[in-house]
Amino acid sequence: GAGVSQSPSNKVTEKGKDVELRCDPISGHTALYWYRQSLGQGLEFLIYFQGNSAPDKSGLPSDRFSAERTGGSVSTLTIQRTQQEDSAVYLCASSFDGSNYGYTFGSGTRLTVV
Amino acid sequence: QKEVEQNSGPLSVPEGAIASLNCTYSDRGSQSFFWYRQYSGKSPELIMFIYSNGDKEDGRFTAQLNKASQYVSLLIRDSQPSDSATYLCAVTPTSGTYKYIFGTGTRLKVLA
């Protein structure tokens, strides 16, 4: 596609429920990233996928968070047993090869846990 | 000490003036530096990247890097009200060049 596509754009969920956030990167981009932006906070790295390599999961805040990337394209970030502190904007980004020319962000999913 | 520090602002400048946005970083081994612009309620948008000491110009924007001082800045010439946004500085750490460390951003207000 022309840009990084994320869905849903907004998600309100009850505490304790599981949620899935989807990201469709720019066509041809092999690198995909998930970041989280909380109110008044900087962007926090969550996970990085590059081609068929093992993902860098070092930023996932707890074992309730997981992500997968199927077929080297679409990625899903899953948060199990959501907590109020999970409320944030979840941003997906992609780039050609994890290179240093900057990456392109999607419009994000605003997650609210009530 | 935060890894990437920015003054949160707001930085207010009159239309037509030069806006100067600053960023310091703690990882001396950082190699790549980025400036993103984020409008309220929108996602970050890449403006510029810089790797080498000195200045890099792109239109009204100039990025300046001083690795010895661990300092990177963004100058916006002839500021316009449409430049009003939060500007995020991002740095790649020594540990992983694909993993950007972001500052919390400086809010810029350009007054018409």
Which features characterize this protein?
heterodimer; A: 114 residues; mainly beta; six-stranded mixed beta sheet; four-stranded antiparallel beta sheet; globular; B: 112 residues; five-stranded antiparallel beta sheet; 11 strands; 51% strand
For the terminal residues of chain A, how far apart are their CA atoms? 33 Å
Shape of chain B: globular
Low-confidence stretches of chain B: none
Beta-sheet strand percentage of chain B?
Answer: over 45%
Helix content of chain A: under 10%
**Largest binding interface between chains:** A-B, 25 and 25 residues
Q: Kindly provide the radius of gyration of chain A, computed on alpha-carbon positions and rounded to a whole number of angstroms.
A: 13 Å
Topology (SSEs and partners):
The complex is a heterodimer of chains A (114) and B (112).
Chain A: E1 5-7, E2 10-13, E3 19-24, E4 31-37, E5 43-50, E6 65-69, E7 75-79, E8 88-95, E9 104-105, E10 109-113
Parallel strand pairs in A: 2-10
Antiparallel strand pairs in A: 1-3, 3-7, 4-5, 4-8, 6-7, 8-9, 8-10
Chain B: E1 4-5, E2 11-14, E3 19-25, E4 33-38, E5 45-50, E6 54-58, E7 61-66, E8 71-76, E9 85-91, E10 101-102, E11 106-111
Parallel strand pairs in B: 2-11
Antiparallel strand pairs in B: 1-3, 3-8, 4-5, 4-9, 6-7, 7-8, 9-10, 9-11
Verbal overview:
The complex is a heterodimer of chains A (114) and B (112). With 114 residues, chain A is mainly beta. Chain A has strands at 5-7, 10-13, 19-24, 31-37, 43-50, 65-69, 75-79, 88-95, 104-105, 109-113. In chain A, strands 2, 4, 5, 8, 9 and 10 form a 6-stranded mixed β-sheet that branches. Chain A is globular, with a radius of gyration of 13 Å. The termini of chain A are far apart. The model of chain A has no long low-confidence stretch (mean pLDDT 92). With 112 residues, chain B is mostly beta strands. Chain B is 0% helix and 51% strand. Chain B is built from no helices and 11 strands. Chain B has strands at 4-5, 11-14, 19-25, 33-38, 45-50, 54-58, 61-66, 71-76, 85-91, 101-102, 106-111. In chain B, strands 2, 4, 5, 9, 10 and 11 form a 6-stranded mixed β-sheet that branches. In chain B, a hairpin with a 6-residue loop joins β4 and β5 (45-50). Chain A binds chain B through residues 31, 33, 35, 40-43, 45, 48, 50, 56, 59, 91, 95, 98-108, and chain B through 4, 31-32, 34, 36, 42-46, 49, 51, 88, 90, 92, 96-105.
